Amino acid sequence: MRTNMKIKSISVLILITLLVTSCRQSTKPLSSTDIQIPISLNTKAEGDSAIYGLVCPSSADSLISILPFTGGDPVTYNIFSAIKENRIYGSPDTGDWICIMPCHDDPHKAYSIIDLDEIKGTWTYPVMPHLRDVSHLTKRQQERILVNMPDSIIKTYMIPRQYGFTLQRMSVAKPVGFVNQTNDVEDDSPVEYPAVPFFTEWHAYNGRIILVKGQHKYLDKWINKTTVRDTFDLVYMQNDSLVIRNHEGKIYSFHRQQNALTANAKANAMAEKQDKKLKDRMDKVSK
User: Any idea what the CATH number is for the domain that residue 43 is in?
Assistant: First the structure.
């Protein structure tokens, strides 16, 4: 699954070609001008001490070599400490884009490693609806949403949805959790879901992940009125699981989905069923 997800862009393929060329011995020595050719024009954010680059083949399990995006020859880091303390997030493989935090006491030792190619994809967590507060509505409105319906009927509305985000290249993030449903069905439903967090960007910074909710309007309605940046420490990332922690110590656990479209397949199917029920009911009333 992981192999299928890592479809590289043309630009990254070019970088990998450079990686392979640089990592193997050549009979033609590089000139000083060649060594200074930048691998990427991207520059790190101010204050970011992490090292970014592409993984080169390595001859030892406790070492990792990367071709840094700043240019030059591959650099090798001792990763024994990161392995021992479980601070390798993902499974870095040759050609992967990674982030290395070097140790303060030895710049050639890695404190932590994040496989930034592996963290890309769709990550979600389950969200359940809650009964709507209808105390502020008129009697007619309360009757409309059937607050006194049997619990067996309410259970049909208690369908979990998947909230989260899709992380893409070029620091693009997209929210996951929106379900196709008409406003009429939502108004008549005895339950409601919390607002979907609307993520627009993501960045790696000093071995952490920053998720950004940028200003965003949809149909003249504000989804995000202001830009909010949340910084998270990685706790765990392997295979299909991702665990992150915010600055308050709150833990968030995610599961990898195939894509955003299939993440809420069950919820969308139920929404379509509810839409049809409402349409049938309205057709009967109009006759």
Answer: 2.40.50.140
User: Percentage of the chain surpassing pLDDT 90?
Assistant: 49
d(CA 164, CA 197): 7
Do both 226 and 95 map to the same domain? no
- 168, 174 Cβ separation under 8 angstroms: yes
Instruction: Lowest mean pLDDT of 49-58, 137-146, 199-208, 226-235, name the range.
Output: 137-146
Which pTM does this prediction carry? 0.75
Tokens of 29: 């020595």
So what's the pLDDT on residue 108? Answer: 93
Same domain as 235, residue 262 = yes
Task: Work out whether strand 75-78 and strand 63-68 pair parallel, antiparallel, or are unpaired.
Answer: antiparallel
Spell out the alpha helix ranges (H) of 85-146.
116-119, 139-144
Q: Which of 82, 117, 152 is the last residue of a domain?
A: 117
